[in-house]
Protein backbone atom coordinates (compact mmCIF):
# COMPACT_ATOMS: atom_id res chain seq x y z
CA UNK A 1 0.00 0.00 0.00
CA UNK A 2 2.88 2.38 0.80
CA UNK A 3 4.52 1.64 -2.53
CA UNK A 4 1.32 2.52 -4.38
CA UNK A 5 1.12 5.81 -2.49
CA UNK A 6 4.72 6.68 -3.43
CA UNK A 7 4.02 5.77 -7.06
CA UNK A 8 0.96 8.09 -6.97
CA UNK A 9 3.07 10.98 -5.66
CA UNK A 10 5.69 10.39 -8.35
CA UNK A 11 3.00 10.30 -11.06
CA UNK A 12 1.39 13.53 -9.85
CA UNK A 13 4.81 15.20 -9.66
CA UNK A 14 5.68 14.13 -13.21
CA UNK A 15 2.33 15.40 -14.54
CA UNK A 16 2.71 18.70 -12.72
CA UNK A 17 6.26 19.20 -13.96
CA UNK A 18 5.16 18.35 -17.50
CA UNK A 19 2.45 21.01 -17.33
CA UNK A 20 5.08 23.56 -16.24
CA UNK A 21 7.99 22.51 -18.46
CA UNK A 22 6.12 22.15 -21.80
CA UNK A 23 5.12 25.84 -22.04
CA UNK A 24 8.68 26.86 -21.13
CA UNK A 25 10.11 24.67 -23.89
CA UNK A 26 7.59 26.10 -26.36
CA UNK A 27 8.58 29.65 -25.36
CA UNK A 28 12.22 28.74 -25.97
CA UNK A 29 11.37 27.46 -29.47
CA UNK A 30 9.28 30.56 -30.24
CA UNK A 31 12.15 32.83 -29.21
CA UNK A 32 14.59 30.77 -31.29
CA UNK A 33 12.36 31.06 -34.36
CA UNK A 34 12.02 34.81 -33.82
CA UNK A 35 15.82 35.09 -33.91
CA UNK A 36 15.95 32.98 -37.08
CA UNK A 37 13.28 35.21 -38.67
CA UNK A 38 15.22 38.35 -37.80
CA UNK A 39 18.40 36.95 -39.34
CA UNK A 40 16.52 35.77 -42.43
CA UNK A 41 15.09 39.26 -42.94
CA UNK A 42 18.52 40.87 -42.66
CA UNK A 43 20.21 38.34 -44.95
CA UNK A 44 17.43 38.64 -47.53
CA UNK A 45 17.76 42.44 -47.50
CA UNK A 46 21.52 42.17 -47.90
CA UNK A 47 21.26 39.78 -50.87
CA UNK A 48 18.54 41.86 -52.52
CA UNK A 49 20.42 45.12 -51.99
CA UNK A 50 23.55 43.82 -53.69
CA UNK A 51 21.55 42.90 -56.77
CA UNK A 52 19.33 45.97 -56.89
CA UNK A 53 21.85 48.83 -56.76
CA UNK A 54 21.47 51.30 -59.59
CA UNK A 55 25.14 51.18 -60.59
CA UNK A 56 24.93 54.25 -62.84
CA UNK A 57 24.16 56.35 -59.75
CA UNK A 58 26.86 54.69 -57.63
CA UNK A 59 29.50 56.71 -59.49
CA UNK A 60 27.83 59.75 -57.98
CA UNK A 61 28.01 58.16 -54.51
CA UNK A 62 24.25 57.57 -54.47
CA UNK A 63 22.66 54.38 -53.17
CA UNK A 64 19.52 54.26 -55.23
CA UNK A 65 17.78 50.94 -55.60
CA UNK A 66 15.74 49.33 -58.32
CA UNK A 67 12.69 48.41 -56.29
CA UNK A 68 11.33 45.60 -58.48
CA UNK A 69 14.72 43.87 -58.57
CA UNK A 70 14.94 44.26 -54.81
CA UNK A 71 11.52 42.63 -54.28
CA UNK A 72 12.34 39.70 -56.57
CA UNK A 73 15.71 38.96 -54.96
CA UNK A 74 14.32 39.49 -51.44
CA UNK A 75 11.50 37.02 -52.12
CA UNK A 76 13.93 34.42 -53.49
CA UNK A 77 16.27 34.70 -50.50
CA UNK A 78 13.42 34.64 -47.96
CA UNK A 79 11.89 31.58 -49.64
CA UNK A 80 15.13 29.67 -49.18
CA UNK A 81 15.43 30.71 -45.52
CA UNK A 82 12.19 29.09 -44.40
CA UNK A 83 11.36 26.69 -47.27
CA UNK A 84 8.54 28.93 -48.48
CA UNK A 85 6.92 29.83 -51.78
CA UNK A 86 6.16 33.43 -52.67
CA UNK A 87 2.60 33.89 -53.89
CA UNK A 88 3.24 37.20 -55.70
CA UNK A 89 6.49 39.16 -55.42
CA UNK A 90 5.04 42.34 -56.92
CA UNK A 91 2.18 42.74 -54.44
CA UNK A 92 2.38 44.61 -51.16
CA UNK A 93 2.75 42.95 -48.70
CA UNK A 94 4.72 39.96 -49.97
CA UNK A 95 2.90 36.73 -49.10
CA UNK A 96 4.60 33.40 -48.58
CA UNK A 97 3.18 29.91 -48.03
CA UNK A 98 5.04 27.07 -46.34
CA UNK A 99 6.16 24.11 -48.45
CA UNK A 100 6.73 21.78 -45.51
CA UNK A 101 3.78 22.79 -43.30
CA UNK A 102 6.29 23.76 -40.58
CA UNK A 103 5.07 27.37 -40.53
CA UNK A 104 1.90 29.28 -41.17
CA UNK A 105 1.73 31.82 -43.99
CA UNK A 106 4.12 34.79 -43.77
CA UNK A 107 3.45 38.39 -44.75
CA UNK A 108 6.43 40.67 -45.33
CA UNK A 109 6.08 44.43 -45.72
CA UNK A 110 8.94 46.31 -47.34
CA UNK A 111 9.25 50.07 -46.86
CA UNK A 112 11.82 52.20 -48.68
CA UNK A 113 12.91 55.57 -47.30
CA UNK A 114 15.44 57.84 -48.97
CA UNK A 115 17.57 60.29 -47.03
CA UNK A 116 20.23 62.72 -48.15
CA UNK A 117 23.48 63.27 -46.25
CA UNK A 118 25.73 66.27 -46.82
CA UNK A 119 29.02 64.75 -47.99
CA UNK A 120 30.97 67.84 -48.81
CA UNK A 121 30.06 71.00 -46.94
CA UNK A 122 32.06 73.14 -49.36
CA UNK A 123 30.45 71.96 -52.61
CA UNK A 124 27.10 71.11 -51.07
CA UNK A 125 27.16 67.55 -52.45
CA UNK A 126 24.40 65.32 -51.16
CA UNK A 127 24.79 61.57 -50.80
CA UNK A 128 21.70 59.39 -51.22
CA UNK A 129 21.14 56.75 -48.55
CA UNK A 130 18.26 54.28 -48.77
CA UNK A 131 16.76 52.73 -45.63
CA UNK A 132 14.79 49.53 -46.13
CA UNK A 133 12.48 48.33 -43.40
CA UNK A 134 11.43 44.69 -43.65
CA UNK A 135 8.67 43.58 -41.28
CA UNK A 136 7.45 39.97 -41.26
CA UNK A 137 4.52 38.45 -39.39
CA UNK A 138 3.11 34.96 -39.19
CA UNK A 139 0.76 33.29 -36.72
CA UNK A 140 3.01 31.07 -34.63
CA UNK A 141 2.52 27.35 -35.20
CA UNK A 142 2.87 25.65 -31.84
CA UNK A 143 4.77 22.36 -31.97
CA UNK A 144 3.26 20.56 -28.99
CA UNK A 145 -0.34 19.38 -28.88
CA UNK A 146 -0.75 20.70 -25.35
CA UNK A 147 0.11 24.22 -26.46
CA UNK A 148 -1.88 23.93 -29.72
CA UNK A 149 -4.99 23.10 -27.74
CA UNK A 150 -4.30 25.84 -25.23
CA UNK A 151 -3.85 28.30 -28.11
CA UNK A 152 -7.12 27.27 -29.80
CA UNK A 153 -9.26 27.28 -26.67
CA UNK A 154 -7.50 30.13 -24.87
CA UNK A 155 -7.43 32.47 -27.86
CA UNK A 156 -3.78 33.44 -27.45
CA UNK A 157 -3.13 34.21 -31.15
CA UNK A 158 0.63 34.48 -30.71
CA UNK A 159 2.38 35.83 -33.81
CA UNK A 160 5.95 35.31 -34.92
CA UNK A 161 7.20 38.79 -35.83
CA UNK A 162 10.45 40.33 -36.91
CA UNK A 163 11.53 43.79 -38.07
CA UNK A 164 14.91 44.68 -39.57
CA UNK A 165 16.17 47.94 -41.01
CA UNK A 166 18.83 47.68 -43.69
CA UNK A 167 20.83 50.69 -44.87
CA UNK A 168 21.91 50.88 -48.50
CA UNK A 169 24.83 53.27 -48.72
CA UNK A 170 27.77 53.68 -51.08
CA UNK A 171 30.96 53.99 -49.06
CA UNK A 172 33.52 56.10 -50.87
Task: Provide a compact summary of the structure.
This protein has 4 helices and 5 strands.
Task: Note the beta-strand portion.
Answer: 25-35%
How would you spell out the order of helices and strands?
Answer: HHHEEEEHE
Could you give the order of strands across the largest sheet?
1-2-3-4-5
> How many beta-strand elements?
5
What's the overall geometry?
A: elongated
User: Distance N terminus to C terminus?
Assistant: 83 Å
Biggest pleated-sheet summary: 5 strands, antiparallel
Radius of gyration from CA coordinates: 24 Å
**Any idea how many domains?**
1
Residue windows where pLDDT falls under 50 for at least 5 positions: none
The total count of helices amounts to 4
User: What number is the mean pLDDT?
Assistant: 81
Q: What helical percentage do the residues reach?
A: 40-55%
Structural class: alpha+beta
Describe this structure as you would to a colleague.
The protein has one domain (2-168). The chain contains four helices and five strands. A hairpin with a 5-residue loop joins strand 1 (84-88) and strand 2 (94-98). The longest helix has 51 residues, at 2-52. The model has no long low-confidence stretch (mean pLDDT 81). A five-stranded antiparallel beta sheet has the order 1-2-3-4-5. The chain is an alpha+beta fold and 172 residues long. Helix 1 (2-52) runs antiparallel to helix 3 (67-82).
Amino acid sequence: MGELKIFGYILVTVLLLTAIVLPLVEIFFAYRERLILSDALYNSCRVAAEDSYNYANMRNINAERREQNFRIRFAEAFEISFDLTCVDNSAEPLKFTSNSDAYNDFEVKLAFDIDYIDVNAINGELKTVTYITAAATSPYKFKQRYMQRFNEEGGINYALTGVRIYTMVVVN
